[in-house]
Amino acid sequence: MCNLESFKIDLKGMKTDEQRLEFDLNDDFFKALDVSEVNGGALHVSVSIRKATGFYELQFHAEGTVTVPCDICLDDMDQPIETDHVLVAKLGAETNTEDDDVVTVDENEGILDTSWLIYEFIALAIPIKHVHAPGKCNSAMTQKLEELSGAVRSGEVKVKSLKFIELWHILKEDSRRLVHSSVVLMTRQ
C-alpha cells in the first residue's frame, strides 16, 4: 500500500532555499487516493521547490503511463502522459483562494500535501478521448456495439423509445392534474 505521508512537504522546515523530491507512482498510489478515473499507472514525478520571499514555487513534472478504460470497449488501456505544472504556495491563515495556481498553506502547520495535487495534474494531462489503437479493442465488445448501433439505425430500438415517450407524456399529464388538484384544494381552504 502507498504511504501518502511521503507526499507531505514541510515548507517551514526547509533547510535550504531549493529542494528536489522524486516520486515513483504505481497502482498503489491511485488506490490509496481512491479515484475512479484512473485505474493505475507507472509514473515518475519530480517536484522542485524554490523558497522565495513570502512564497514557495513548486515545479511539478510527471512522465509515464496511466491505466484508463477505453472509451469504446471499456477494457483497460495504457495512456502515455507527460505534464509540467507550476504552483505557488504561500503561508497564511486563510486556506481558500480563488486562484488555481496559488495555494495557501496553514501558517501554523506549514505542511503541503501534494498527493492530490499530483493526481490532479496527472488527470488533467489525460486526453479527453482515450481509445485503443485501431484493431486493439476487445473484439467481443466492438461486435456487440456494432449490433446495437445497427439496431438503432434500422429502427428496432424505436419501439422501446416510443413506449418510453408515451409513458413520459402520461406521467407528465398526471403530474399536471395532481398540481391542479392541489391548487384547487388550497384555494378552497
Describe the overall structure.
- The chain has 189 residues and is an alpha+beta fold.
- It is 34% helix and 34% strand.
- The protein is built from four helices and seven strands, in the order ββαβββββααα.
- It has helices spanning 27-33, 115-125, 139-154, 158-188; strands at 8-10, 18-25, 40-52, 55-69, 76-92, 102-106, 111-113.
- The strands form two sheets. The chain has a five-stranded mixed β-sheet with strand order 2-3-4-5-6. Strands 1-7 form a two-stranded antiparallel ribbon.
Overall mean pLDDT: 82
How helical, in percent, are the residues? 25-40%
Low-confidence stretches: 179-185
Which structural class should the secondary elements be placed in? Answer: alpha+beta
**Beta content:** 25-35%
Number of strands: 7
Task: Please give the order of strands in the largest beta sheet.
Answer: 2-3-4-5-6
Oligomer status: single chain
Order of helices and strands: EEHEEEEEHHH
- Count the helices. How many? 4
Main sheet characteristics: 5 strands, mixed
Cα end-to-end separation:
65 Å
Radius of gyration: 26 Å
Overall morphology: extended
